[in-house]
């Protein structure tokens, strides 16, 4: 009986002394013999505070902190020294478990921290902890490189530049009159570079809005641009040319009509009726002795009352005469 109890106690001893049972977390901890701890990155921008793990934002105030794990306070009297190697050639030393340092450019870095704990004059504990991480540029600007005036019913290309470290998720949509009657989604695109080309055909004139947002692993940004859509200038030129041609044709027709009317007005106007009698005589008479029985008296007829004279036609004159024998 006692043998069984002793055997059970011996088998349970590793479990009782394990770090999990003792409250020592092993995931993400650094063990420097009797020292345990972990690194954390804290970035602050404005009123926002972000706890980072494997990715940092460049040009953002960053606090790198070493958190000591000493639940029994065995190292409460130790004097600590910290040597920070930021992986870009810069090294800082100090006695505080935290340091402020900002990475100015994006890239992959390895942080190395050496911790020394001097227990007494003869006893010193040392250890080293390393962490690989990536520094990314935050998205701070979305710029539309294309002009803000486009043409209707034509495939237009818009160049959008996003300042930030790719890869980035870009979501964009066009809104007519800058409003949407119903909630609409957006076109989601994975961007592996900083410039994106959007091809879009505007089907209506007026003001449109381009809503666009971008995000990467450490930041996000949203903006909007107002765009004016007008008619195609080539169509306007064609319309003007057609208008001039039509006006020229109308002017030509008007000139021809006026000339024709003027020609009719220049013709002599003849009175429809006239009571004037034109009489003339141009005769060569032979001597009376050559024409026996013919008197030399010549009578020119006079119009009787009510007698109708023939109309004058085409500028000629009607001549009426009679000879009485």
TrEMBL record:
| Transmembrane spans | 236-258
Q: Which UniProt keywords apply?
A: Glycoprotein, Membrane, Signal, Transmembrane, Transmembrane helix
Q: Which organism is it from?
A: Coregonus suidteri
Q: Give the UniProt entry's GO cellular component terms.
A: plasma membrane
Q: Does the keyword Membrane apply?
A: yes
Signal peptide start-end: 1-23
Identification of the protein by name? PKD domain-containing protein
Q: Which PANTHER family match?
A: MELANOCYTE PROTEIN PMEL 17-RELATED, TRANSMEMBRANE PROTEIN 130
Q: Which SMART domains match?
A: PKD
